[in-house]
Specification:
The complex is a heterodimer. By secondary structure, chain A is of the alpha+beta class. Chain A is built from 7 helices and 4 strands. Chain B is 45% helix and 14% strand. A 5-stranded mixed sheet of chain B has the order 6-5-9-7-8. Chain B has a 4-stranded parallel sheet with strand order 3-2-1-4, with helices on both faces. In chain B, helix 12 runs parallel beside helix 14. The chains are: A alpha+beta, B alpha/beta. Chains A and B meet through helix 2, helix 4 and helix 5 of A and strand 5 and helix 11 of B.
């Protein structure tokens, strides 16, 4: 059985095969693969016995259920007003320069993707960003550089 | 309406001086209608933003016909400038679960969900641990109720209760038509009571101190204390528990940086109050119960602020209904056109009319509330929109 089939089977064993199991299953695929490939979505559709279009429809609604290939570490910098006011653009420029990618792109080695996201609920400590599920706050240019370089070296 | 000056209280974040599960134990031996009456009498309104009276929702929930009633704690805190629910779930999660337990007791629900926004996934391990303790307590108390965490995946509109339910059912988070209300037919068609995180905490507090004591806080319009998430141009950003009904001028004096030009209350779905109205306005009335408060000083361009909001709305509109989907995009393009002089300044008036249409024709609160910040910014800072 292909890896993705095994993963979907494993997830449906855990979360069930109902329609209401769909989100947890898709989230499970994303946390393992970082995105939902068409193979993955077709497999989920087969497993839950619903149309692949339904799976695709749900997946594309949510910004954390990516249908584009992403790197191992997805960096999401908050762009909403308070983080924006407090210098998120400088943070983004710093990360772009280190990783040599633009917002929306993935590094050649598939290790990092850089995205912007809407309010992540850390306005009191902005600018803030998520790397996968982990939160980083009170970012400065220096701090952002340190964090990314730490990920490059140690992860 | 009685006005009170800013008074900090500390009810919600007080450490567990009385165990929240003791409050639960003491409450679930009282008759259910008595508990509901207590919550009704307290005047507590939902703390998510819409401000529906909590006691009334619980009363409808208790009266609803159907087995397997469901309680959902809405922790899909997506309103820009709001982060109070994060603080509650980090610092005093037991107060939330105690409130949910009380709600389960009075409504007869057996299943609860905590709908946690995707951005807060990092909290899940700690919350799972807390839930183990809660479930042990339920067992001891013979309360047939369990809570499960459901993680969101990044969609502002899922904070709307019916969109949230759609999302839990594995669908696109598109709001439903109301009626039927969730309390009649919600998650998988079962009677469902959806309350905000802070609402459950406040309800549990009401059960602890009694409605008479609780009512002493706040104003005639808004009872109790309330958490405010304060951010922006302030030297002291954070979550503060403040008695409802204080004047913006008092608020600005305490939290501003002495150069405050405007205060956005109720998040981007709320209103932008300019300096000239600081004396006239009171925080915590009408649609501002979510508690998001963003402070802007005179270095900020209100055009940039509004542009950021509209970009947010255009992206987060679920796209289901035309007034909101197209309206948000046109407003964004419209203010850009005025700024770049490809449209005359009068075009702003056309855009204002568009927001009026969105207010009456949009299906849910998202599209309906764009008019609030749009009109308050364009009216009060018109020159900044043009030049």
């Amino acid at each position: 059985m292909a890896d993705i089939q095994l993963l979907v089977k494993e997830l449906s064993a855990k979360h069930g095969k109902e329609r209401s199991s769909l989100m947890p299953i898709l989230q499970g695929v994303v946390s393992k693969e970082r995105y939902l490939s068409s193979e993955a979505m077709t497999e989920v559709a087969r497993e839950l016995d619903i149309s692949a279009a339904e799976v695709y429809g749900t997946a594309t609604f949510y910004s954390f259920l990516d249908t584009n290939p992403r790197g191992k570490y997805v960096i999401r910098v908050c762009r909403t007003i308070v983080c924006d006011m407090h210098g998120k653009q400088d943070v983004i420029k710093t990360i772009e320069n280190i990783l040599k990618i633009k917002v929306g792109e993935t590094t050649m080695d598939k290790k990092f993707s850089l995205l912007e996201t809407n309010c992540i609920g850390w306005c009191n400590e902005g600018p803030a960003m998520l790397i996968n599920d982990e939160v980083f706050t009170k970012l400065t240019v220096d701090k952002a550089r340190e964090i990314i370089q730490d990920f490059i070296r140690n992860k | 309406m009685a006005e009170k000056t800013l008074k900090r209280v500390d009810v919600i974040f007080t450490p567990y001086s009385v165990s929240p599960y003791k409050i639960l134990a003491e409450t679930i031996v009282k008759p259910t209608n008595e508990v509901i009456q207590e919550v009704l009498d307290s005047g507590l309104r939902g703390r998510g933003g819409a401000g529906f009276p909590t006691g009334l929702k619980w009363k409808f929930g208790a009266a609803a016909q159907g087995d397997n009633k469901v309680i959902i704690c809405n922790a899909d805190e997506g309103e820009p400038g709001t982060f109070k629910d994060r603080e509650i779930l980090t610092k005093v999660p037991r107060k939330v679960f105690s409130g949910m337990g009380i709600c389960a007791y009075v409504t007869g629900a057996t299943k609860g969900y905590l709908y946690l926004r995707g951005e807060y996934r990092y909290m899940i391990p700690a919350l799972e641990k807390e839930l183990e303790l809660f479930h042990e307590n339920c067992k001891k108390l013979n309360l047939n109720f369990s809570i499960e965490i459901f993680s969101g995946s990044g969609a502002y509109v899922c904070g709307e209760e019916t969109a949230l339910i759609e999302s839990m059912e594995g669908k696109r988070g598109e709001p439903r038509n109301k009626p039927p209300f969730p309390v009649q037919s919600g998650y998988k068609g079962k009677p469902t009571i959806v309350n905000n995180v802070e609402t459950f905490v406040s309800a549990s507090m009401v059960c602890r101190i009694g409605s008479a004591e609780y009512k002493k806080l706040g104003t005639d319009d808004q009872r109790g204390s309330k958490l405010f998430s304060i951010s922006g141009d302030t030297p002291v950003p954070g979550v503060y528990e403040i008695e409802l009904g204080m004047k913006i001028s008092d608020f600005v004096e305490e939290f501003g940086d002495s150069d405050t030009k405007a205060v956005q209350v109720g998040g981007v779905a709320g209103y932008c109050i300019p300096r000239k109205d600081f004396d006239k306005m009171v925080v915590g009335i009408g649609g501002t119960t979510g508690g998001s408060t963003m402070v802007f000083n005179s270095t900020r361009s209100m055009y940039n602020v509004l542009h950021n909001y509209l970009h947010f709305f255009a992206e987060e509109s679920c796209g289901q209904c035309t007034p909101c989907r197209v309206g948000c995009q046109q407003l964004l393009k419209g203010i850009e056109a005025v700024k770049h002089k490809t449209k005359p300044a009068e075009y702003l008036d056309q855009l204002m009319k568009l927001t009026e249409t969105m207010k009456v024709a949009s299906k849910c609160g998202l599209g309906q509330s764009v008019a609030n910040s749009f009109a308050s910014i364009v009216t009060n800072f018109r020159e900044e929109m043009i030049y």
